[in-house]
Design brief:
By secondary structure, the protein is an all-alpha fold. The protein has 2 helices and no strands. It has one domain: Alpha-Beta Plaits, CATH 3.30.70. It binds iron/sulfur cluster.
């Protein structure tokens, strides 16, 4: 949580790759267009999968 808004840590966000088909925070937020992809952190599906594995299965690598 940031000072006045929640902030997404790009090092921990996989855009829900590995968990869901679409970014869940965007899907469940009741206000449209409040959670936007950060153009400074564009990642491929493969990069997001690699991050998912590192975050959740690093002990098995
Ligand atoms: S819900 Fe999914 S897309 Fe949203 S911050 Fe978490 S990992 Fe990222």
């Amino acid at each position: 949580m940031g000072d006045s808004i929640y902030q997404i840590d790009p090092d921990r966000c996989t855009e829900c790759v590995g968990h869901y088909d679409v970014p869940t925070c965007m899907k469940v937020c009741p206000i449209d267009n409040t959670i936007l992809k950060d153009p400074a952190h564009v990642e491929s599906n493969e990069q997001l999968w690699d991050k998912f594995v590192l975050l959740h299965h690093a002990d098995k690598i």
